[in-house]
Amino acid sequence: MSDHLPDSRVDVPLHRFIAEAITQKVTNGELKPGQKLPSERKIAMDYQASRATVRTALNHLEQTGLISRRERRSAVVALRRDITPSIRIACGNTQWLNLFRRLGELQKLPARYQLQYIDLHQPDAVNHMISKPAESVDIVICDLEDSSCFTNDSRCYSPIPKTQFPDIKFSKTISHWFENEKAYQVIPLGIWPMLLYVNSDILQRYNVAMPTPPLWQWHTFEHTIKYMATHGMYGLQLRPTLKHMGSLAHLFNTSLFSNHCNQQQDQFLKLFYDLLHTNKTIPAITKSEQINLFTQGKCMASLDGFDKYQDYKDKLGDKLQIFHIPYSQSVPTMIASGLVAVILPNQDSCQPAIDFARSLLNLTTQKIIYQLSGALPVRNDLLTTDTMQEFNISEDIAKFILNQLPHCKLIQPPKNSQQKVNFDNLLLEYWLGLDTLDSCQTRLQQLLAN
Q1: Considering the entire predicted model, what is its pTM?
Q2: Which CATH superfamily, name and number, covers 88-192+337-410?
Q3: Virtual torsion, Cα 152, 242, 444, 264, nearest 10 deg
Q4: How is the chain split into domains, by residue range?
Q5: Mean pLDDT in each 10-residue stretch from start to end of the chain (450 residues)?
Q6: Class level of CATH domain 193-335+417-449
Q7: Preceding omega of 188 cis (within 30 degrees of 0)
Q8: Which pLDDT score, from 0 to 100, does residue 202 have?
Q9: Helices 262-273 and 242-249, interaxial angle, to 10°?
Q10: Closest by CA position to 195, among listed 308, 282, 291
């Protein structure tokens, strides 16, 4: 089994090279099912590697199902590839991890899979996954805002031809966000419109007229939430996250991660500071889902994703009213985020991951994803008033969502995971009043310049 180390291996980690070499021997029949592999010591000598490096390579081969190992015995080529996972799936937050565990219970995941959680907000998380194949994954399920951290890395797969999904009907409003030379690198699975939820009971209590048609210009809305503050009531609830803050920033026709809109960004930060600290119309809540003053009747309105609709409806009933985000111009715009699947590299082929993504996009699974997560389906044939009513969405809300989708705009994602971490930290300090307005404006411009 002795092999020379070719010059082409220079940029490939040694454990990965060993794993690929053994895989090739199985593929070409040199190693047959049930046959023992040489000992770790022999492999280490053949490849001029340490025993630890060999174990890392064998761990990867065992995870992919190519070999099986028992304590104190040599590894053998697996007789059955289905005794261990053939696809590894990581989820970007615990909500998605629970969702896909449930899909597994419903037998909507492939028979051979392994689920794990990965914190995408940790610095260098993407690099860690891609550079260590024995600990890597085949597909990552994450929020749309995190997908650019993968797509901007050249070591991820090249875009997948859309011909891989000939039977999938994406909404035109949504699919163009993911197009790249007639190919997808990120597969859309679901979408959240950002909505303005309003407690009509509070409006009536303080003699505030309900806007008709369902359109609040920003100056009118700002006056209303400040009026609530004078009566000991919070006006607007929003959380310091990219989805919420990106929606509010859109009022000034700016993107949080664009370095071409410094003046508008300064205006946005000042508005946010005035609402949060000067006028005290926004409660200083953190990202924790445990604090929700809107459902407790202590806040007039909440800027939130569509995934909150069912929860708010259950708690407020007929008191809940839905509007698009207050806008400073006459054309309403709905900001959106969503759920995506990112295909990552593995040793042989991305076909298992593509098959998995295709299974997530079939009609039945799309319905289940909505029912379990609150994400709207991306399939054209599911985005109708009739099918949305099957998901317990009232006809008027279904019509409202469908009418707004053509005006959807994508929240610009960060360039990489480190920019996301730095921005989150800056925003949270600003949110809690730990830094001044001028300092935050300077730090934001420095962050965007890097």
Answers
A1: 0.76
A2: Periplasmic binding protein-like II (3.40.190.10)
A3: 110
A4: 7-82, 88-192+337-410, 193-335+417-449
A5: 50 81 80 83 89 86 75 69 66 86 83 80 74 70 83 73 83 78 84 90 88 73 90 88 84 79 82 88 72 88 89 91 78 80 71 84 87 85 86 85 82 78 82 85 82
A6: alpha beta
A7: no
A8: 93
A9: 110
A10: 308
User: Half-sphere exposure (CA, 13 Å, Cβ side) for 47?
Assistant: 26
Convert the pLDDT of each residue in 384-437 to its tens digit. 888 888 877 888 888 888 888 877 888 877 877 778 778 888 888 888 888 888
Residue for token digits 């051979």? 112
Residues of 1-30 as b/e, b for ≥16 C-beta within 10 angstroms?
Answer: eeeebeeebeeebbbbbbbbbbbebbeeee
Enter the tokens of residue 370: 């909505």
CATH 3.90.79.10 fits 7-82, yes or no: no
- CA-to-CA distance for 177 and 184, rounded, in angstroms? 10
Count of beta carbons in the 10 Å neighbourhood of residue 352: 20
- How would you classify the pairing of strands 335-343 and 409-410? parallel
Question: Is-contact 264 252, C-beta < 8 A?
Answer: yes
